[in-house]
Specification:
The protein has 279 residues and is an alpha/beta fold. Helices cover 56% and strands 11% of the residues. A 5-stranded parallel β-sheet has the order 2-1-3-4-5, with helices on both faces. Helix 3 (39-49) crosses helix 9 (182-200), helix 4 packs parallel to helix 5 and helix 5 (103-119) packs across helix 8 (155-170).
């Protein structure tokens, strides 16, 4: 009986504490064959270190555009990819040498551009040893891929892929050529996406990466279970004011937490220390 009430309390709590419509901060689209175990992996780690929650979308050589099984993979994963794109606040697309050779990535790019045009979702193209004109005009390696698509795919679908690449190639992004240090390049990208997300909400005061931490905090507090809990938050002085600011600006309503008491332990211990010294 107790377990049932706990479950109901938990479910009602989770439904009432809807912090964000997004599951991810950044959606990463890239070709695993080109950059999956190098540049994309390092970029992913840098985004996580920055406090962001990225989603990795990648296609490997086993899913090449020439594979018969490819269409089956696309059919089952297309809706999942579309949902992940929709649930991400921003998108980073890494255009590498073989990106255009994977139809799943091109289909995802169509969705990415569609969301960008419809909602203003930030899209940051990264041209990894590929000139933006190659992407924009579908020439060189990209032209070779489309020479095959013209005879093997519907014209309407191919035109959508071309349009998405042309739009993406015209967007302002980051170009990595030989001679540049990748680590510095990655730092520029992560700083840029962090600033974009920070400015996206609340006039620059938005706390990037806060959603997942709030979800974790809510699970620790366990509102609805009828007990009293104490949670310690370690940080700089004044963090309780930041907590109140987050609740106010994010318009987060947490049943049962309206009367929560925030204590700055530095101030508490300082007061006790002064009282002890005055004796």
């Amino acid at each position: 009986m107790a377990s049932q009430s706990s479950k109901s309390a938990s479910s009602s709590t989770s439904s009432s504490i809807s912090i964000s419509k997004y599951d991810y901060d950044v959606f990463l689209s890239f070709c695993r064959e080109d950059v999956g175990k190098s540049f994309a992996d390092h970029l992913y780690a840098a985004l996580v270190k920055k406090g962001l929650n990225p989603f990795r979308e990648a296609t490997s050589a086993s899913e090449s555009s020439m594979s018969i099984e490819k269409s089956k993979v696309q059919a089952t994963s297309a809706s999942e990819s579309s949902m992940s794109i929709e649930k991400s606040k921003a998108v980073i697309v890494i255009f590498s040498r073989n990106y255009a050779h994977f139809t799943s990535l091109l289909s995802d790019l169509v969705e990415i551009i569609r969301h960008g045009e419809a909602t203003g979702k930030p899209i940051i193209p990264v041209f990894y040893h590929v000139d933006p004109s190659v992407v924009r005009k579908q020439i060189d390696n990209y032209g070779e891929a489309f020479a095959e698509y013209e005879s093997n795919h519907e014209k309407e679908k191919v035109n959508r892929w071309r349009y998405a690449l042309t739009v993406a190639g015209n967007l302002g992004g980051y170009v990595l050529h030989h001679g540049r240090y990748e680590q510095t390049f990655i730092m520029e990208i992560t700083d840029s996406i962090y600033d974009i997300l920070r400015r996206q909400h609340f006039g620059g005061d938005y706390l990037v990466g806060i959603d997942n931490r709030l979800e974790e905090l809510m699970s620790l507090i366990g509102i609805g279970f009828g007990d009293v809990r104490m949670v310690g938050v370690y940080g700089i002085g004044g963090i309780e004011r930041i907590t109140r600011q987050v609740r106010q600006e994010r318009q987060i309503h947490i049943p049962g937490l309206e009367d929560a008491i925030f204590h700055d332990l530095d101030e508490v211990f300082s007061m006790k220390s002064r009282k002890w010294m005055s004796k």
